[in-house]
Write a structure and sequence with these properties.
This protein is mainly α. It has a single domain, classed as MFS general substrate transporter like domains (Growth Hormone, Chain: A), CATH 1.20.1250.20. Helix content is about 80%, strand content about 0%. It contains 18 helices and no strands. α3 runs antiparallel to α10. The chain is globular, with a radius of gyration of 20 Å. The N terminus and C terminus are likely disordered.
């Protein structure tokens, strides 16, 4: 007999807790990793190259983790393993000395961590029951980001740049363990998909993991109508994002800002994300997720333009509010739109491509080019070019998906039956 699905409030609460741990961890890492690398004596170009190395490894690792999860039929095991192994990689990065050791530790961390976010995204979309409720589950992650970013700033003030790892390491491990406990899908029948999933062979899972390395799998997803052009738009946006975000902390420090100003630069946008992600379902029904994605890319462009023309850390902090609008709409909109565009059997792989692969390609190009441009012409010039890139991404997104919305105004529940081949 079918089992009654979990109540809607529970289906949102459980992934919300996981997102709080996951993006709390990001709050300990993203604002400070460039500061930490620079504190080891590396120049701007080398800092950019190491950030790009993380992205390069993620480019392969994210879809591979997603393919493994699709092959097993459940993301919880892969996320748990990835979280625990990420904790070991964080320890290696914290004790690394010299560029070769730093590079090896960063590569290990990327290989372990890269798939966690897209795997959690794909499971959450299924767990909450409707695509447009994804933002409700994701919003607490932004709130946790704010709290942890400031807490990590205090740790760095006391312990130095390596203090970030005392916060980051435990949180990534807790994320993996929390996902295992909290992200279980409710059963839909006595002998349906969950039972069959348990009987899937390890060899099939391994085959699906190796398939994640194949361009054929990626191209197969991107052949879905309009996904190809949107993928290009995503790469352009995330390239611009990497060029800005990778070096904005160094710009704040260059202008005389302290660790509190750096935390505020990353946190103001995250505060806005809490409200916009929570309100995303209503906004998507009113305007369409596709149009919100375009607005997000445009808001990113405004933030970059403002950051390029000011010389006050306070104004850079204020400008980061547009980054909160941009991330809320572009990221949540992307997850929502992709979930409605591919079949359930490739959900984790598709999310890995769009929130993993496109982000990683962008991070590689943006970090390497950003380090070179910032070192040669200054960070204001780099941020101005980022604004141009964001704008180009907004135009491409409009051409690809926003002129002809795909998602219906009120998406149907995702998990009504185990035989449903689609995402919604």
């Amino acid at each position: 007999m079918p089992v009654t699905p979990a109540p809607a409030s529970a289906s949102v609460l459980r992934p919300a807790i996981v997102y709080a741990m996951l993006f709390g961890a990001q709050g300990a890492y993203l604002p400070y990793v460039a500061i930490y690398l620079a504190s080891t004596g590396l120049d701007l170009g080398t800092v950019g190259a190491l950030i790009a190395l993380f992205a390069a490894v993620s480019l392969v690792a994210a879809p591979s983790w997603g393919a493994l999860a699709d092959g097993i039929g459940d993301v919880r095991g892969p996320v748990a393993v990835a979280g625990i192994l990420s904790g070991g990689a964080v320890l290696a990065l914290a004790i690394a000395v010299g560029p070769p050791a730093l590079a090896l530790a960063i590569a290990l961390l990327a290989a372990m961590f890269a798939g966690i976010i897209p795997m959690v995204d794909s499971q959450t979309v299924r767990l909450v029951g409707q695509r447009d409720r994804f933002g409700l589950a994701r919003a607490p992650g932004s709130g946790a980001f704010v709290v942890v970013a400031f807490a990590t700033g205090l740790a760095i003030a006391s312990l130095g740049p390596r203090g970030m790892f005392a916060v980051y390491g435990p949180l990534v491990v807790l994320t993996g363990l929390g996902a295992w406990v909290l992200l279980r899908l409710p059963p839909v029948g006595a002998a349906s998909k969950p039972a069959r999933t348990a009987r899937r062979s390890s060899s099939r899972a391994a085959d699906r993991t190796l398939a994640g390395l194949s361009p054929t799998v990626i191209l197969g997803v991107l052949r879905t109508p309009r996904l190809g052009v949107f993928f290009v738009a995503s790469v352009v946006v995330w390239t611009s994002h990497a060029a800005l975000q990778g070096f904005v902390s160094l710009r704040v420090k260059e202008l005389g800002g302290d660790s509190t100003a750096i935390a505020a630069t990353w946190s103001l946008g995250a505060v806005i994300e809490v409200f916009l992600m929570s309100g995303f379902p209503a906004l998507a029904r009113r305007f369409g997720a596709e149009r919100l994605i375009v607005i997000g890319a445009s808001a990113f462009a405004i933030r970059a333009l403002l950051s390029s023309i000011v010389d006050s850390p306070t104004v850079i902090v204020v400008a980061s509010a547009f980054g909160g609008v941009g991330f809320s709409f572009f990221y949540v909109g992307t997850v929502t739109w992709v979930a409605g565009s591919v079949g359930r059997g490739v959900q984790a792989t598709a999310q890995g491509i769009f929130t993993g692969t496109s982000n990683s390609i962008g991070a590689i190009v943006g970090s390497v080019a950003g380090g070179a441009i910032g070192g040669a012409f200054g960070l204001p010039t780099l941020f101005a070019l980022s604004a141009v890139g964001y704008g180009a991404g907004a135009v491409l997104t409009w051409v690809a998906i926003a002129r002809r919305p795909l998602l219906p105004p009120s998406p149907a529940p995702l998990a009504r039956s185990s035989s449903d081949p689609g995402a919604g």
